[in-house]
Amino acid sequence: MKLKRLSILFLVMLLVSTLFSSFAFANEQSKPSLVALGDSITYGYGLGSPVSEAFPHLIGGGKLDVTNLGVPGWTSGDLLSSLQTDSSVIQALQSANVITLNIGSNDLLQAANFAGLIEDPTLFDPVALGQNVAAAIGSFGNNLIGIISTIRQHSQAPIILYTIYNPIPLENPLGPTFYGFAEQMISKTNNEVIKPTAIGSKSLLADAYVSYTDQQLNYLLPNDVHPNQEGHQVLANLANQLLIQLLVPSNIELTVSHEEQSTDPVSISVTTTGQVIEMKWLPGEKEVSDFLEEGNVIIDREFEVTENGTYTVYVKNVFGFETVNSITINNILEEPPIEEEPPAEEEPPVEEEPPAEEEPPVEEEPPAEEEKPVVKKPEEKQKKDKKKEKGKDKEKENDTIVPADKKNKLPNTATPMYNYMGIGIGLILLGSVLLFVQRLRRIHPV
């Protein structure tokens, strides 16, 4: 069984070493940068030469530029504070091609008072320790989310997130009860905090817990919770297996939104392997070199074209590998030119009807002349007047027709004035007579 594991380990190391050698040949400017965040496990505590034997330095067969920021004794709260305040940590993240994150063991060990239990096993109280550990797991979950969020503010490099292994072997001074307690709290932390966080943050999960189960005596330093050299190689191999997909040029698959003939634009979707940091497209059959200073940036892994032809997509992954792939579009129909409708003929202007001619005013007939009163004249004068009137009557025969009943009729000039005068005179005379009679009676009474 052990021989089989060594064979697999050798193959993985050989493959990773070959891939990194290819990368170094393709990109002679610099080696890929790895930033390792964590506690004493990341630091390489207990090893003879941490700078060369700790697992971050073993990833990629030693062909990575490693910045090891592991600090012995750190909890998740310490790491989060450093990420938020230490400018050197922030600067290292900004230039990282890949990041490893191994944190949380000290959160649990301190909550369980592991050091105190080693000195005095009688202090073991599962109930009290269970309460402390539950609170520590909740705090660790919040800190881990904060750590990854802070990393993402400064880098988009892939994050390899390690689960926590159980450092307590079944054969331990505290007995199988403490082993079972450790298994319970570590499994809860991995299943309820680390794994969901890895999925939510799209981090790569390195399951150290599975690799170390029942192997504590082989992978840990004697009477210690820290890995030995073999244990560090196991942690490095977990990262190597995850990085294989990142250490080769990305495979590009192009698909179209529809293949039927249509006048609609065609959307081209891009699917890639590995962690991509740059994606562009150009019309025509292009090479990688054509995208050095040109290219349309692809957003949300999709772009749209409106004309038939060949289109090339360029992809660059986190380790600088560049590749292209092309696709030909020939199902876009040209829209027929839109014929402009002839302008509508203008309707001839409607001739306005001339205004109705006003009827000439009706000439009023001159009022009939009033007949002059007939005045009796002397006979001679009357004769002369009659002759004159006859001449005038002949002239006016055509103008005025006098009705027969009005000829020789006297004008109506009568008035009641004389009647009123007569009545008044009569009343005055009557009054005078009555006054005279009244005086006589006074003079000659009867």
What does the secondary structure layout of this molecule look like, with pairings?
Blueprint: H1 2-26, E1 33-38, H2 40-43, H3 50-53, H4 55-58, E2 65-68, H5 76-85, H6 87-94, E3 98-102, H7 105-111, H8 114-119, H9 126-152, E4 159-162, H10 176-201, E5 204-206, H11 208-212, H12 216-219, H13 229-243, E6 252-256, E7 266-272, E8 276-283, E9 296-297, E10 302-305, E11 309-317, E12 322-329, H14 379-395, H15 417-443
Parallel strand pairs: 1-2, 1-3, 3-4, 4-5
Antiparallel strand pairs: 6-7, 7-10, 8-9, 8-11, 11-12
Helix pairs in contact: 1-13, 5-9, 9-10
Give the structure's gist in a few sentences.
This protein is of the alpha/beta class and 446 residues long. The chain has 15 helices and 12 strands.
Describe this protein's structure:
The protein has 446 residues and is α/β, with parallel strands linked by helices. It has 2 domains: 2-246, SGNH hydrolase (Rossmann fold, 3-Layer(aba) Sandwich), CATH 3.40.50.1110; 252-329, Immunoglobulin-like. Helix content is 42%, strand content 15%. The protein has 15 helices and 12 strands. The strands form 3 sheets. Strands 2-1-3-4-5 form a 5-stranded parallel sheet, with helices on both faces. The protein has a 4-stranded antiparallel sheet with strand order 9-8-11-12, with no helix packed on it. The chain has a 3-stranded antiparallel sheet with strand order 6-7-10, with no helix packed on it. A hairpin with a 4-residue loop joins strand 11 and strand 12. Helix 1 crosses helix 13 (229-243), helix 5 (76-85) runs parallel beside helix 9 and helix 9 (126-152) packs parallel to helix 10 (176-201). The longest helix is centred in the first third of the chain and has 27 residues, at 126-152.
